[in-house]
Design a protein that fits this description.
The chain is built from two helices and six strands. It has about 110 residues and is an alpha+beta fold. A hairpin with a 2-residue loop joins strand 3 and strand 4.
């Protein structure tokens, strides 16, 4: 099951990334959750592809993104792999920026 799922997701991502994706075409939805190191959960839509269960973590004063993974006999393996660093940067920046906006808004309330 995991192997088939990973293959399908990989094929969809390769198709999506091979198309030129403008930054405006990537939309981000973030839900703030404060549970241990978990700050929020995010989903990203890029064209006809949506990636869910992206975790925003805060560990040792730094914030970072953890993309979906599955466990296997070899440990955890990423379900999502960016072929270009540029697309990963764009997605990561959008998620972190949106998370920060929501946290500032929440603090003002």
């Amino acid at each position: 099951y995991h192997a088939v799922f990973k293959t399908v997701v990989k094929d969809l991502l390769i198709q999506q990334m091979n198309q030129k994706t403008a930054e405006e075409e990537i939309s981000v939805n973030v839900k703030l959750i404060k549970r241990g190191n978990l700050v929020a959960l995010a989903s990203v839509t890029c064209g006809s592809l949506t990636i869910r269960q992206i975790r925003i973590l805060h560990i040792k004063g730094k914030r970072f993104i953890s993309f979906p993974q599955c466990s296997s006999s070899d440990g955890y393996q990423d379900l999502l792999y960016f072929n270009t660093g540029t697309l990963r940067e764009i997605v990561t920046d959008k998620i972190l920026k949106r998370c920060e906006e929501l946290q500032l808004k929440q603090q003002k309330l």
